[in-house]
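Hi support team,

I'm opening this ticket because the web form for multi-chain structure prediction keeps timing out on my end. I have pasted the exact lines I submitted so you can reproduce it. The total is 420 residues across two entries, so I didn't expect it to be a heavy job. Is there a limit I'm missing, or should I split the entries? Thanks in advance, R.K.
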Amino acid sequence: MKRQKNLVATMIIEHEGELLIDWLEERSRRNTNLMFNSGLFNKEEFERQASDLLKIFTKGLKEDTVLDIATDEWAEMRDYLSELSNDKAAKGYSATETAIFVFTLKKPLFKLLSREIQAHPEQLTNDVWEITALIDQLGLYITERFIKNREEIIARQQDEMLELSTPVVKLWEGILVLPLIGTLDSTRTQIVLESLLEKIAATGSNIAIIDITGVSVIDTLVAQYLLKAVTAARLMGAECIISGISPQIAQTMVQLGVRFTDVSTKANLSDAFAEALKRSGVVVTKRQESF
Amino acid sequence: MEKIPIIKIDRFLLVSIQVDMHDNLALSLQDELLTKITATGAKGVLIDISMLDIVDSFIGRILGSIAEMAKILDAEVVVVGMRPAVAITMVELGLSLEGIRTALDVDKGIKLLNTVLDERENIDGRVTR
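Hello R.K., no limit was hit. The queue was backed up. Here is the completed structure from your submission:
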């Protein structure tokens, strides 16, 4: 076992240059329509990455007794692959293109193997199998990292969207407004509710206007959440006014049997604001018009 | 044993809960507060719970019943300074403290009590006249 593994490793070290050229060739042949046209492919970059990968690959082959990249001996390889997939994801490569980077190493490697170990056919079969399994592992790993990376990006964007979509705005001393836009689901409504209550506590506002002009659909669940927000705000010592209920929503709500009892509702935000000003004892007067 | 101080300010009683409420403490607070209302003839009670992190269903219910009992003794109760997280929990537990006045802080609570009591006096005045 040991002897055979060293053989592969020494072989790769000896023929590193040749392997690299073959790898690049193989790579260019397989990607003519994908990479070169999009202008993403960079020859120098590929050569650098390929030779780095080969170095770490040989190092791993030398040290490892078991060809399994989950072991500690392959930690360096795993780190390098993660870094590589990060880099590729950031540059806009697809998952296939990232995986092909590793898989294209197969052909030149097998070519080399079949040439060098022709004398021992039984060992050739064994070696080819082991190396195949190893490169498959590498390819799978890099793809997995790539997907994980993308998922992280998606999750981060989702968080950002949630934050962006729930602003609580101070309209006047003691008056907050929460403009809701888009579709309300339970996660979003909960975040909205929490940020509203936090803001009430932080600013010491007596009145909060929840404006649902931008909400297209309200079902019983969302109505329930809104009522919860109103009750929680009341418990803290703030009143809520719900504004911007469209005629359609008013109809569906009555048909669904949703009642906004104990909550003042207004047709539009300006009415709600006027009501809020009235409740806080502020009088707005028009100055005498000047001509 | 822990005790929650009840302070008389002007015509109000101020209760500031600054320790974790457990069931016995809540019950003894209820008892002491009601006794104090009768003893001082206070017309308003402020319960400050801004230091309270957790309110369970029992404490929530006690707060509700204290308010109701005080009302029978002719005192208005204002619960002040409930934290957002506590408010959410209370709503989820179905404790909306119907009929209890709330305010954001002690200052606003005193203002609210003053308005309520002034209104009440005016109405009472009209009736007796």
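A quick check on our side: The beta strands of chain A are 169-172, 175-181, 207-214, 239-243, 264-266. Let us know if the file doesn't open in your viewer.
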